[in-house]
């Protein structure tokens, strides 16, 4: 809808200036001519001329004020309104140029700066949303295609029993992967929208790590992995135990997934200057510096050979949980020589 153009000359503005000017001039004349002997004829003549001057000056002041408002208020407001209209129509690339230079900024420049910052944030969120939807769609299609194809093949009455069992196991694996994907998406959504509130309690971190490791006993035995643990006792932290269990399970699971049979997994816990430091190391494929920079992003998978074993959400969940509990996480890795994930949690 087209905005109505305002005139430089407003009747109400003119009336305000006229009343103000009349008041000032009347008071000035009363003070100036008080006690002076002036004839009534001269007073009448001067009154008419004075009234005419007041009318003229009021119009002049009103015009100057209209020009001032046009350039200092209405133009910036129109630019902001136009940009707002374009944003609401979906043009998230809209930006407003500053009105003044850095040394002569006013309130409109501050509003414009905040508007541009808002537009950049919205643009980034929209990009993330689009990428997220595209990635989720891709990740959902893969297990669904497996389920559809193998379900069709299972309907063959002449299918041998060994093949039938193999296909059934494949269906179970694909459905489990689909279930894990949906569960991780829901968890990540709740964490990012602050719908999960940490239940802080003090507990023994070493005991928790040991219990998480025992949950993967069948995996390391199946791959004949060497497990080296160096977990100090009596290290306690104040955090949400359930959320941190999610962290350790993801890190240990990744270490075992990316380590070839007969490889080595190392898990350590030590106190260092008020911090509990957890390290999960493996002798797997490792990663390049480029992969390491993106490893905590949603759906990012640096090693395509293991893509069927995950959905790229595990480390994104880990990073979000560590941020929520106020900890730190980083990865040290070298391509072909394994990786070490280091997590620091405050002991106090």
Automatic annotation (TrEMBL):
It holds the Pfam family HATPase_c. Residues 71-127 form the HAMP domain. The chain crosses the membrane at residues 12-35, 47-67. It comes from Paenibacillus brevis. PROSITE patterns: HAMP, HIS_KIN, PROKAR_LIPOPROTEIN. InterPro entries: HAMP_dom, HATPase_dom, His_kinase_dom, HisK_dim/P_dom, Sensor_HK_Regulatory. It comes from the Bacteria. This is histidine kinase. Its EC number is 2.7.13.3. It catalyses: ATP + protein L-histidine = ADP + protein N-phospho-L-histidine. Residues 135-348 form the Histidine kinase domain. It is found in: Cell membrane. PANTHER family: SENSOR HISTIDINE KINASE RCSC, TWO-COMPONENT HISTIDINE KINASE. The lineage of its organism: Bacteria, Bacillati, Bacillota, Bacilli, Bacillales. GO terms for molecular function: kinase activity. Keywords: ATP-binding, Cell membrane, Kinase, Membrane, Nucleotide-binding, Transferase, Transmembrane, Transmembrane helix, Two-component regulatory system.
């Amino acid at each position: 809808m087209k905005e109505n153009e305002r005139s430089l000359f407003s009747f109400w503005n003119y009336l305000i200036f006229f009343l103000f000017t009349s008041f000032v001039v009347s008071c000035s004349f009363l003070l100036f001519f008080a006690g002076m002997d002036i004839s009534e004829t001269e007073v009448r003549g001067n009154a008419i001329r004075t009234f005419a001057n007041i009318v003229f000056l009021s119009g002049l002041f009103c015009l100057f004020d209209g020009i001032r408002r046009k350039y200092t208020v209405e133009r910036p407001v129109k630019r902001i309104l136009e940009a707002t209209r374009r944003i609401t129509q979906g043009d998230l690339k809209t930006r407003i140029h500053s009105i003044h230079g850095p040394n002569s900024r006013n309130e409109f420049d501050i509003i414009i700066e905040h508007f541009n910052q808002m537009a950049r944030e919205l643009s980034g969120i929209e990009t993330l949303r689009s990428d997220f939807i595209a990635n989720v769609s891709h990740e959902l299609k893969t297990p669904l295609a497996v389920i559809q194809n193998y379900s069709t093949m299972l309907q063959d009455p002449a299918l041998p029993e060994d093949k039938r069992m193999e296909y059934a196991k494949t269906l179970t694996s694909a459905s489990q992967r689909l279930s894990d994907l949906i569960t991780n998406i829901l968890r990540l959504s709740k964490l990012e929208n602050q719908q999960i509130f940490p239940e802080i309690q003090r507990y023994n971190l070493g005991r928790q790590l040991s219990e998480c490791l025992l949950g993967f006993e069948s995996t390391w035995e199946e791959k004949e992995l060497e497990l080296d643990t160096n977990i100090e006792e009596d290290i306690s932290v104040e955090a949400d135990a359930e959320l941190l269990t999610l962290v350790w399970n993801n890190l240990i699971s990744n270490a075992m997934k990316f380590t070839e049979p007969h490889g080595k997994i190392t898990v350590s816990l030590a106190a260092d200057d008020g911090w509990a430091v957890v390290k999960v190391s493996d002798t797997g494929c490792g990663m390049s510096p480029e992969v390491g920079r993106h490893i905590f992003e949603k759906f990012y998978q640096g090693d395509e050979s293991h893509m069927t074993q995950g959905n790229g959400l595990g480390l994104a969940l880990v990073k979000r949980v560590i941020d929520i509990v106020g900890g730190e996480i980083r990865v040290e890795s070298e391509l072909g020589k394994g990786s070490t994930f280091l997590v620091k949690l405050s002991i106090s």
